[in-house]
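We were asked to recover a plausible sequence for a given structure. The inputs and outputs are reproduced exactly as logged, with field labels preserved.

PROBLEM: sequence recovery
POSITIONS: 106
GIVEN STRUCTURE:
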């Protein structure tokens, strides 16, 4: 099931909203507000958990679904990669350059 499928239920608030609002957790506050007024909330949330969807469904974000024991497909590998990149970026920022090391030694 995708948001597109539910968009066919033209009474659902997401039917008249930019789908991007539902695709990532960055717009979760807006999506959750729309889902709160939707008659499909319980069904939508259950389907998203079963189908391991990404995005906001039935007022529940990817992160909230993962915490409830229903992680989206590929959740763990994507989280590991994000952690690895953050750690690598942080390590690069903290490491002094060769010229900084030379200046410090002088
Ligand atoms: S609960 Fe939210 S995502 Fe699901 S059909 Fe309703 S408005 Fe769309």
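RECOVERED SEQUENCE:
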């Amino acid at each position: 099931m995708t948001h597109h499928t539910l968009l066919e239920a033209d009474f659902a608030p997401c039917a008249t909203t930019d789908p991007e609002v539902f695709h990532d957790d960055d717009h979760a506050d807006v999506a959750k507000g729309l889902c709160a007024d939707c008659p499909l909330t319980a069904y939508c949330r259950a389907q998203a958990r079963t189908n391991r969807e990404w995005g906001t469904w039935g007022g529940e974000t990817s992160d909230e679904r993962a915490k409830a024991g229903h992680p989206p497909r590929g959740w763990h590998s994507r989280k590991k990669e994000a952690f690895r990149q953050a750690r690598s970026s942080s390590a690069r920022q903290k490491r002094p350059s060769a010229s900084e090391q030379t200046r410090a030694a002088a």
